[in-house]
Amino acid sequence: MKRLSNPRVKRRLKIGLSACGGVITIALTFKLGYDIGYFDAQALENDQNAELPTTRPVLTMESAQRIVSGALKAR
Fold first, then answer.
1. Fewest beta carbons less than 10 Å away: which of 2, 22, 68, 69?
2. Alpha-carbon distance 25 to 33, whole Å?
3. Distance between CA atoms of 30 and 36, rounded to whole angstroms?
4. Rounded distance, CA 42 to CA 52, Å?
5. Which domain covers residue 9, as residue numbers?
6. Whole-number Å distance between alpha carbons of 16 and 10
7. What are the residues whose beta carbons fall under 8 Å from the beta carbon of 62, sequence distance 6 or more?
8. Per residue in 2-42, pLDDT tens?
9. Residue 32: left if φ>0, alpha if ψ -120 to 50, beta else—which one?
10. Buried (b) or exposed (e) across 12-33, using 16+ Cβ within 10 A?
């Protein structure tokens, strides 16, 4: 306990705790900024997906052939 009464030790402890607090604050700020950006991007993507037509496109002979040939090539 005597060591903590030393002014030099107190000063170094304050500096160390302040640096750790600063690093934690910066990390939380970046995390919060990333989360906000991520959720905004997800909302934009969901809005764009909601705008897509819900009707099914007509299957033409050419698109059916592409689907079948793609499935056969995957084997």
1. 2
2. 12
3. 10
4. 16
5. 2-74
6. 10
7. none
8. 777 888 888 999 999 999 999 999 999 999 988 888 888 88
9. alpha
10. eeeeeeeeeeeeeeeeeeeeee
Q: Which two tokens stand for residue 34?
A: 């990333």
User: What does the alpha-carbon distance between residue 62 and residue 46 come to, in Å, rounded to a whole number?
Assistant: 31
Cα–Cα distance measured from residue 18 to residue 24, given in angstroms and rounded to the nearest whole number: 10
- Residue 13 is predicted with a pLDDT of 92
**Tokens read off for 61:** 């002979």
Contact 66, 74 (CB under 8 A): no
| pLDDT greater than 70 at residue 72 | yes
Which comes out higher in pLDDT, residue 54 or 33? 33
* pLDDT for the residue numbered 24: 97
